TrEMBL record:
Keywords: Coiled coil. This is Endonuclease/exonuclease/phosphatase domain-containing protein. Gene3D superfamilies: Endonuclease/exonuclease/phosphatase. Residues 168-195 form a coiled coil. InterPro entries: Endo/exonu/phosph_ase_sf (IPR036691). It comes from Cryptotermes secundus. It comes from the Eukaryota.
Amino acid sequence: MTLMNVHAPTEEKEEEAKDCFCQQMEETYDSIPSNDMKVILGDLNAKIGKEKEHRGVIGTESLHDTTNHNGVTLIDFAEIKNLIITSTYFPHKNIHKRTWAAPDGVTFNQIDHVLKEKRFARNILDVRTLRWSNCDSDHYLVQVKYRCKISHQRSKQYEKCKKFNIDKITESDKREALQNKIKEIKDNRANKEVTVEGIWADCKTTIITEAERTLGYQEEQINREWFDEECRESINLKNKKYKNKKGGV
């Protein structure tokens, strides 16, 4: 998961500064790996309203009724990147939606926001301000309750390595067949200019092919060397005593 912290220019800043910020934010966002869960949060200096035409990106629980210019820019960015502004979705008292207080102590705005990809929207459980937290700032601390779901990555299934039935190599005819094939390769290559890699490739292919034909593969067996006849007799005796005891009750 990647948290992208931003601080946008205020509404009164020049358009050039705003455009530069938007470009930088988009480039930074696009540089994050696509398989990461991405969260944008911080001071966006954007008022988000409750306009119906923006449903799907914003909720109905914003502090403001009307979106300002910075808010429209943020909504456009969210639509392009398939994000939602989660800070406008959760019902709270207005005092818990305010994220910034003016020096006059009367004016309050909701300009700090949390944006999340729509496909992971349910991971955000709540967004609200904590008024009691002393941050030494004109902004309130914003709390985000996040539920992280990490899917279990299945381990890659590897094909079991087959083993040749090397017990058969003790048989003279099987052993001689392999020896003759290897000698045949050596004789055929004696007067030819070939690389070491070429000789090894032919030798490997011939040995495997001939071993499959003459030796075959071992049958897959469960290794139970510890379980011998003594263990089997002990288990049978135990089961017999258990049945006799049960029948006598």
